[in-house]
Each structure stands twice: as structure tokens, then as C-alpha cells.
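Deliverable D2.4 — example input (C-alpha cells):
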């Protein structure tokens, strides 16, 4: 395959490296407006052709194009790729709003081409293992999903902390507990330094008594990447900062013999063993590239497709409305 990559900034070199290293890719062409980024890529990947013009890149007739630009450009670039009848890979978040996402989905169906949304964490060994445990019923029915993703920086000029950090954890949530439907979102936060919020708390309500909570922050003195998933049988902690035991499954839970009369209820706490399952250490982005290419070759939708991207954008959009309205509940259609 011949792959065109638009945007060679922070994530661009990783995309160039992984597409270049895939045996199904014969040529990679990079595109960026900044001369400095072109020189950086040229020095690291001398075999990669480069251009400053997206129009020129479209004329190269690549089999697929990768959009790794700021989110406000995802829609316009992806639309032109789809109109040309080529497959497209779009970085997270998929689009800046649901209207754009729906239009791109309809266009891809009309042109019979694929949209891959780079929800990278879905391809990590840890998240795949969590999905396996949940689908296998090891945790029981999921009752809560609690996530913390905080660090010091990097402030973004175009989006707030919700649009920057939350897509990672929202995509993990959607993948792991895909059978549950989000019905409403509340968000609170504050912008301490400029117009975009730097700290936010997002609550997602589901239609079956399940709840999810996300804490995202650009102004934390420590870097934390941690999730707690509670089930009726067992509970799980995922700490992405851990080098070895990223997942810990706890045989812990609560049993209540009288839910109707809480004053008469006997609450029993179960605290059993903890075990840490082994996870695949293959680079997630490499697996994502293979999935994208395989989906094209086999004419099927990729694992992280445009519909998944739309679901995440719906929650992001609702959270944006809620945070501007000081935490008002926003329903999700």
C-alpha cells in the first residue's frame, strides 16, 4: 500500500515509523506546513517522501490517508479524502462535533471506503485483557467505571482538557462496556489560565444503573493514568504507569441481604485474593496499523471505526455543553 500522512507533529513520527515498518506498506508520503517538521522527519526517515501541500498529496493517489492534525481540521481533510474514494485514518477525537462525524460516516458509506479512528488504547494488551475479563463475566455486571488521567501540561491552544485527554478513557470505556448505553452527561471544571478549561470532572450516566466518572487535569504535580472498574463479582484496577502489573483483579465485593429496607440490611464485605494477569506487550499503534490495513484488504469495518468515534464525540460534545452550563445534565440521543 501507499500511505499519505497529513500532520507530522507530536504523533506524526510514531505514525510514520509504524506505517513504514508494516510489511504491507511499500511507500509513505508525509505532509506538513512547517519546514522544521519536514526536516525532522527527513532526518529520521530518509526513505519517506515529503510535501507541504495537501493538494499535492491527494494527487499521489495513495491507497489510504492518515489525518494527524488538530481536531478542527479533521473534518475538512477527511472529507476530501473520502470524496476522492480513498480510505482514511483519523486521530482522536474523530471530529469537532457530531454533525461532522455523521456526515463523514454517510460519505464513507456512499463511497464504500473505511474510516479508522485512532483510539490507540483499545489496541493495548492491558485494555484487550480487561475486555476479555469483562466479556467472560469474570467481574460480573459492571456497576461503575472510574478513571483518572492527570499530568502537568501540555496545554492545547485549540481545545480544553476534556477534548485533549478524555477521548482516551472514553474510548476504553466504550470498548470495555460496549453493551451499556450512555444516556446523559454532566461536567464541571474551570479555566484558570486562558479560555479553555484545564481541569474537569465528567460524569456519564447509563440506562441500566451503571455510572462512569472521569477526572482530567493539565495542572497536576504528578502523572496518573489509573482506572477502577467495579463489578458485582470482582473489581479491577488498571494502572498504565505500572511497568509490570498493569492490571490487578480483586476478589472483592459487597453483598446486601435486604435492599428494600436499608435500615434492616445486613451488609457483608468480601475481600479475597488479588491476581495480576499477563498482558501482551506489542506496541498498540503497530497493532492499530495492522488492523487498519487488514480491514481494507478484507473489505470490513475496522475494530475502532467511525461509529465508535461518533459515540465518543457525542459524550465530548455533551460534556462541553454541560461544563459551560456549570454542570447541567445534557441528555444523549
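Example output (designed residues):
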Amino acid at each position: 500500500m501507499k500511505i499519505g500522512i497529513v500532520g507530522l507533529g507530536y504523533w506524526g513520527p510514531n505514525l510514520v515509523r509504524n506505517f513504514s515498518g508494516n510489511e504491507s506498506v511499500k511507500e509513505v508520503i508525509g505532509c506538513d506546513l512547517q519546514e522544521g517538521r519536514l526536516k525532522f522527519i527527513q532526518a529520521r526517515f530518509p526513505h519517506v517522501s515529503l510535501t507541504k501541500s495537501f493538494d499535492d498529496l491527494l494527487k499521489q493517489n495513495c491507497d489510504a490517508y492518515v489525518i494527524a492534525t488538530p481536531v478542527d481540521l479533521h473534518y475538512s481533510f477527511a472529507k476530501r479524502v473520502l470524496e476522492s474514494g480513498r480510505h482514511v485514518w483519523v486521530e482522536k477525537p474523530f471530529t469537532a462535533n457530531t454533525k461532522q462525524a455523521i456526515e463523514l460516516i454517510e460519505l464513507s458509506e456512499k463511497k464504500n471506503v473505511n474510516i479508522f479512528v485512532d483510539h490507540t488504547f483499545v489496541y493495548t494488551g492491558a485494555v484487550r485483557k480487561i475486555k476479555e475479563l469483562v466479556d467472560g463475566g469474570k467481574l460480573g455486571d459492571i456497576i461503575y467505571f472510574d478513571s483518572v488521567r492527570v499530568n502537568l501540561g501540555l496545554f492545547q491552544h485549540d481545545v480544553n482538557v476534556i477534548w485533549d485527554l478524555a477521548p482516551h478513557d472514553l474510548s476504553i470505556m466504550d470498548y470495555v462496556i460496549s453493551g451499556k448505553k450512555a444516556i446523559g452527561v454532566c461536567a464541571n471544571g474551570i479555566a484558570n489560565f486562558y479560555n479553555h478549561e484545564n481541569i474537569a470532572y465528567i460524569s456519564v450516566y447509563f440506562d441500566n444503573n451503571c455510572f462512569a466518572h472521569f477526572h482530567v487535569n493539565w495542572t497536576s504535580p504528578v502523572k496518573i493514568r489509573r482506572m477502577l472498574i467495579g463489578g458485582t463479582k470482582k473489581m479491577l484496577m488498571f494502572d498504565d504507569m505500572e511497568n509490570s502489573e498493569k492490571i490487578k483483579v480483586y476478589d472483592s465485593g459487597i453483598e446486601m441481604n435486604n435492599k428494600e429496607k436499608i435500615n434492616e440490611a445486613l451488609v457483608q464485605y468480601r475481600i479475597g485474593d488479588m491476581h495480576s494477569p499477563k498482558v501482551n506487550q506489542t506496541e498498540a499503534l503497530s497493532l492499530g496499523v495492522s488492523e487498519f490495513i487488514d480491514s481494507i484488504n478484507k473489505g470490513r469495518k475496522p475494530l475502532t471505526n467511525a461509529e465508535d468515534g461518533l459515540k465518543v464525540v457525542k459524550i465530548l460534545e455533551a460534556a462541553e455543553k454541560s461544563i459551560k452550563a456549570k454542570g447541567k445534565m445534557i441528555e444523549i440521543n
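The domain at 2-119+284-305 is CATH 3.40.50.720 (Rossmann fold).
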